[in-house]
Amino acid sequence: MDNYKRIHEILDKNKIDAVLISNGNNMRYISGFAGETGYLYISRKRHAVITDFRYTYQAEAEAEGYEIITIDNNGYEAAINDIIRTENVKRLGFEAEDMLYSRYLGLMDKLEIKELVPIGNDITRLRRIKTPRELEYIRKAEEIGDKVFEEMLGIIKPGMTELEISARIEFLLKMKGGERTSFPAIVASGVNSSMPHAVPTAKRVETGDFLTMDFGCVYNGYCSDMTRTIVIGKATDKQKEIYRLVLDAQQAALDFIKAGLKGKEIDKVARDLIYAAGYEGCFGHGLGHSLGLFIHEEPRLSPLEEEIIESGMVETVEPGIYVRGFGGVRIEDLVAVTEQGCINFTKSDKQLIEL
Known about the structure:
The protein is 34% helix and 22% strand. With 355 residues, it is α+β, with helices and mostly antiparallel strands. It has two domains: 4-126, Creatinase/prolidase N-terminal domain (Creatine Amidinohydrolase, Chain A, domain 1), CATH 3.40.350.10; 132-344, Creatinase/methionine aminopeptidase superfamily (Creatine Amidinohydrolase, Alpha-Beta Complex), CATH 3.90.230.10. The strands form six sheets. Strands 4-3-2-1-5-6 form a six-stranded mixed beta sheet, with helices on both faces. The radius of gyration is 23 Å and the shape is elongated. The model has no long low-confidence stretch (mean pLDDT 96).
C-alpha cells in the first residue's frame, strides 16, 4: 500500500510543504524501512529515505518505490538542505513528540528553512486501525506466547529465581519464532506480584506464592502481550477469591468491548466490579492499551480515555488486583475489536493453575 500518499492529507491539514518523519515505527509503517537510523522525507512530489551507509542496502530492499539518499560526512542536515532547497520548502513538518529538544535545536540552527512546524501525533494515529495483514502478524506473535506459557508450566519449580524464569521465557519466545521480546519479561512471585511492573529479581519462587508472568514477542515487526498468574502449590481461599474476581472482571470487559465505545466505558466495566468487591485502590492502572509496531500504543482502556475504540484496533484487556504485603493477580488477553465484539488472540488457560 502506498502509505506515503496518506501523508498528503497531513500536509494539507498542517499547511506544510513537506514532513520529516523521525519516529522509527512510523518510518517502518509508512515506507517499510526498519533501519535504526534515518528520516523519511515526504512532500507532494517526492518521498525519500535519508540514512547512512550502514542502512543503505536495507533501505533499498525494504522501502519499495522510495528514493534512497545516503548521507556523506556533512551529515543529515546537509542532505535535508539539498532536498528542501530543490523543492523550495518553506514550512517543514516534524514529529515534535518524537524528537529530542537538542536535536530540534540542531535542525533549527542548520536547516535552510523558514519554519519548522510540529505536527503532533498525526502520523502515529495512522497506525491505530490495523490491516488484515497486521492483525495476522499480531495473532502469530500472540500464538508464540501461548506456546511459551504452556511449556513454562512444565519447567517452573519451587527454588527457581524470578530471573531464571524470565530468562527461560525470553529464550523460548525466540526459539519458537519471535524476532525479539516486545518488552523485558515481567516475572514476579509472592509479595513481588503486588507490583504491576515488577522487575525480576534473585528471589526464589516458594510454595504458596502467586507467580505473575507478563511477556510478549515481536513477529514481522508486530508485538504481542499476555499475562498469566498461577499459584505455586495449593492456593489459599484468599488467593482463590482474588483470582476469581480478576477473572470475572476481565470476562465482563471481554463480553462488553466492541467498536463505538469510549475507552473509559470499557475500563469502567471491570473497574466497577473490582471496586464493588472492596478492592478500590488495588487496581491502579488502566484496563489495557493498544499495540502494534510498538508495545504501548493509543488509544488505551483507562478511566481517562475519551477516544472511541474502533473496529480493527487491537487492545489488551488486563485487570489486576494488587494487595500490598500479600501479592497480586493480573490476567491479560489480547483482542482485535470488531463491530460486534472482539476476537481474542490469547488462547492460554485462564482457570486458576496450581503447580
